[in-house]
Amino acid sequence: MNLQLAPLIELQALDLRIGELREQQRKTPELIAAAEAPFREASQLLKDATASLDALTKERRDRERDLEAHEAQVDKLKTRLTELKTNKEYQAHLFEIEMAGKKRGEIEEQILVLMDRVEQKQLEMKQLQARTAESERVFTQERRRLEDASVALVSELSQLEQKTAACAAAVDKKLLARYAKLKATRKDLALAPIKDGTCGGCRLQLPPQLVAEVKRSDELQTCSYCHRILYWEGELPSPTAASSASLQETEDDVEETV
To answer: What's the pTM?
Structure first.
């Protein structure tokens, strides 16, 4: 197998890892927003419950004021009984007092219902307050974890980019340009390992003769279908060997020139 592929294979591994880290970096804001969703939902429910409790409390107080006003009116009606002169007026006034009593009962019933609803809403609010506090705690913890992971991503990316630059410098310029073009068009692998006679990029079966050529030839071989550069996995030359081979080629060129 072509020895110059070793640093290129290493470069591809670095590029793939960089791509993974950048994708994780891109998703971090989405993950933070997703982690915040339960807290936002609980906070909104608590806000709605608070508004509902305020409205119920106001309505209960309004009914209580209505009851006070109604009782004052009934007291006035009872006071007037001594002022009435005819039996007809007296009976009519008693009927009016009776109707006022029924009205009072209706208001008192409304107040009792409202008091029950207020009590239920207060209980609901306590539960929502606990839920909101817990969801906030979970969100704060998850956000801190994601932010810490993001900082670690930046650090690892910086290190990988330095390694990538050093690795790219060890690759023949023409081969590097070819790799860059393939990487841009394929969006993933520019170099594909042969696995069980198939291309590791497009997963299609390769001709046995081509597989044999990749194993034994120093010439670059490409997949007939996806045109990725092929290499035989499991027999990768070391970067040192590749550098030595490149140096030997340079020395041979010098000797020929002399």
So the answer is: 0.67
